[in-house]
Amino acid sequence: MEVTEESERIVEDAVMRALETMLNQENSNANNASSSEKRIIDSQQANADSKSAQFTGEVLEEATRVLVKEFGMDIIPVANAVINKWKLEEEDANGQNENATEVPERRKKRQAMLRSKRQSRNSSDCSTFPADCNDRFHTTTRTITGNCNNRQNPELGNSVTTLRRVLGGAFYADGLGRIRTRSVTGEVLPSARLISNSLHDDRDNEVFSSNTNHLHMIIGQFIAHDMVFIPSSVARGGEALDCSSCNSPQTVSANCAPIQVPLNDDYFKIPCMRLTRALNGQENFGVRSQIGQNSHFLDLSTVYGSSNCEMDSVRSFREGKLSTFTDLGYVLPPQNRNDTNCLSSPRFFCFTCGDFRNSLHPALIPVHTIFIKEHNRLADLVRSRRRDMSDEQIFQLVRKILIGMWQHIVYNEYLPKYLPQRTLRNFGLTPLRNRVHLGYDPQQDPSISAEFAGAAFRFGHSQARFVFTRKNAAGRPRGDYDLGFNVFYASQNYLSGIGGWEPVMNGMVQTAGMKTDRYFTFSIRNQMFEIRGRNGSGVDLVSVNIQRGRDIGLFPYIMYREFVGLPVVTTFDDLNTTFSQENIDALRSVYSDPMDIDLYTGMMLEENMAGAQLGPTAVFLVAEQFKASKIGDRFYYESVVQNTDNFNLEEMNEIRDKVTLAKFICTNMDSINRINSDIFDFQSNQVNCSSLPEINIDTFLR
Ligand code: HEM
Ligand SMILES: [Ca+2]
């Protein structure tokens, strides 16, 4: 697209007007947007890099509106050609001394808008942007942000970059970024809470899985926290937004999307439930888009973080190890005395791990801890053999091995437990035997899809139980705790009298998870972020999932269904190939047209595929993501890629032949010496930990 002087002037004018509007809003909202005295508990807190991405995103959003109003949608490709020209000019200018020539005021403003993301990254030093992805470091080492994983397009999959779109676009009321609020019939869409009440309430009738244990749930969450972190919008000053009043979109911020509560609601006696929109990180003119704040790859962001700063906060910088807290006589992650989400009383601090959501509920901490312990155990083994290796060398080698082990556990044990065998084969998700994987594809965008993050991989919320059981090694009860009263409370991890977190881990292995279906437990539907003793002070996670889908512009369920190859639907009855009659009737009772069905709800009401714990649409969206995450990762543990220090065949066989989650757990818990032979089946026979194979560290010391 040719950029003319005139088109450049028009686009620059629009950017200047957008900056001006934002400045005015900032002044007029100064008393509203950031005025909340209330502490806002939110698992999705934006970091500094995300906040500056929001600034760029919002200038572009506003400038897009200005342009489209005047010139219509056809202007967008032209405007993007202009912005690309500016970006190139910026890159050139970066190489030169900028002070040498006088930079006009307008250009400076434009630059500030364009560069704000990168500038803040550099100034905080949390992320580095190397000049050369082909150098030695990027041949041997996976960066913490994911940068340079793809050498042709170094930012692909990087932390703080935009989500991928399975259908290539997004679905908004105005085609740009406004939330869908109307049915195709013109009526108002049912509120997310109404849908949750009508279709997703288990009415305390808990149905458990017949074979899958609660550990499968928590490992799913650990995977989610590795791959997905969609940050919430903040006020201009960087503070959290208080989006709890129904008119907050007008009085507080356009980034509020509160959920209307029906009048007769059983639990919430408030008119609206708070929800802050995912922050807009659009990098071009056009449609609003969201970012992943963690590295998009399956690379243990939960353990190591997604920026240099996060990585530094978990390392001990001695002997290649990670920091721990051991005052109670057992290992925990280091305490975080500044966690603004943490609700437990000051003695019971929440923790610092690679991912900020580690203390979202107490059962995540056992999983974080076994990974930290395994890292430190392997570091000791390496050091005992190689006294000459530095902290950095040991750290990076162990990190590489542990990520390989983790990827193997996910593809070899976790996915087959709920995806059909045929899907695993068709999408190439099954680990190989005694062969290297030659399918790395630099054309594959490894980024997380909005559909996976916003809907499909949230299926796991249905697996969560009301009660977390605690058991000793022999399987005897050690006292339960309720999820709903422990969201962002860390105290359960401080019970040294019963052996800390180990009984929680035993409990998860030895008890059933909930069946994956359309029903969710009371705590998930009513008590997310609830402050103890204040009923209704939290939110409904199912409503949030549905509203989040609308917020991030997911298309209605029907569109994905067709994309996946299921029969076209025009009436509710057409759903009968993949829905029970009961579920069709249920959908009809809240939606006025099948075209309105939200992706999350549609997916959760589909009948499961044979041999699977999910319906066909969710299976596709999950499998599609894990394929992208495999063939789009230059460092995938089975891959051999030119000019990259991947594992050699012997090393990857060591992982494939020996690593199991069962052994991993056994090795890092003091209280057990037997464990379930099928680690995700609570009924499977127990075997001696010592009978399970163990990797030989010498294999990795070439
Ligand atoms: C007790 C268990 C769990 C709790 C309390 C929980 C809680 C939450 C909360 C509060 C959010 C933020 C929602 C939003 O603002 O949009 C969230 C997001 C999410 N959850 Fe869970 N979750 C649990 C288990 C799981 C499991 C088992 C999985 C997957 C198998 C999962 C996958 C996800 C995903 C993919 C997201 C989106 C993350 C993001 O947008 O950054 N969660 N969860
Ligand atoms: Ca990651």
Describe this structure in words.
This protein is 39% helix and 4% strand. With 702 residues, it is mainly alpha-helical. The strands form 6 sheets. Strands 1-5 form a two-stranded antiparallel ribbon. Strands 2-10 form a two-stranded antiparallel sheet. α1 packs across α2 (48-71), α6 (192-199) packs antiparallel against α19 (581-590) and α11 packs across α12 (391-414). The longest helix is centred in the N-terminal third of the chain and has 24 residues, at 5-28. It is globular and about 75 Å long. It starts with a helix and ends in a 14-residue tail after the last strand. The model has no long low-confidence stretch (mean pLDDT 94). The site of protoporphyrin IX containing FE (HEM) has 24 residues, from α7 and α17.
Mean pLDDT: 94
Range of strand content: under 5%
Low-confidence stretches: none
Classification by helices and strands:
mainly alpha
The largest sheet has its strands arranged as 1-5
What's the total helix number? 23
Distance between the termini: 52 Å
Structure summary, number of beta strands: 12
- Secondary structure: helix percent: 25-40%
Shape field: globular
Characterize the main sheet. 2 strands, antiparallel
Each distinct ligand: protoporphyrin IX containing FE, calcium ion
Radius of gyration: 25 Å
Organism: Caenorhabditis japonica
Region (Disordered): 27-53, 92-128
GO cellular component, one term: extracellular region
Subcellular location: Secreted
SSE map:
Layout lengths: L4 H24 L19 H24 L3 H21 L9 H20 L11 H5 L20 E2 L29 H8 L8 E6 H14 L20 H4 L7 E2 L11 E2 L17 E2 L8 H4 L3 H7 L20 E2 L13 E2 L12 H22 L5 H24 L6 H6 L23 H5 L12 E2 L12 E2 L19 H9 L1 E3 L7 H5 L14 H11 L5 H8 L16 H10 L8 H7 L10 H16 L17 H10 L2 H7 L6 E3 L9 E3 L14
Antiparallel strand pairs: 1-5, 2-10, 3-4, 6-7, 8-9, 11-12
Helix pairs in contact: 1-2, 2-4, 6-17, 6-19, 7-15, 11-12
Bound molecules: protoporphyrin IX containing FE and calcium ion.
